[in-house]
Specification:
The protein is of the alpha+beta class. It folds into two domains: 53 residues, no CATH class; 58 residues, no CATH class. The protein has a two-stranded antiparallel ribbon. It is globular and about 45 Å long.
Length: 114
């Protein structure tokens, strides 16, 4: 893991209170073969990050919830307990897709149909 990720994991797991979520100066968006054990030892190449990209102009405040869209899909498919719709008041949904880069049809089905 890169230092940016380690820093935020330490905040989430070992600190309490609120903190500002900042965009990383760099990112890695290169698909890696996780079936190949040597991938764990490969150095990643990073690209400059232009910062957050938002759709809209409104502001929001609340608790963030989400994760990898494919993982959320698996949770929904297997009936694992999830927060109820009422529990999503004041929640900011944050999702990402994996390096497998699913099709836009898949993302639509997970986000709309579920």
């Amino acid at each position: 893991m890169g230092p940016f990720t380690v820093d935020y994991l330490n905040k989430v797991f070992f600190e309490s209170g609120e903190f500002e979520l900042k965009a990383s100066d760099t990112y890695n968006d290169i698909g890696l073969d996780w079936n190949d054990p040597t991938t764990l030892n490969k150095a990643r190449s990073y690209e400059p990050n232009e910062g957050w990209q938002w759709d809209g102009t409104d502001t929001a405040a609340g608790t963030t919830w989400g994760g990898c869209l494919e993982s959320i899909d698996e949770i929904l498919r297997h009936g694992v307990a999830m927060p109820s719709v009422d529990e999503f008041d004041n929640v900011i949904l944050m999702t990402e897709t994996s390096e497998e880069i699913p099709t836009h049809e898949y993302v639509y089905v997970v986000c709309i149909v579920h």
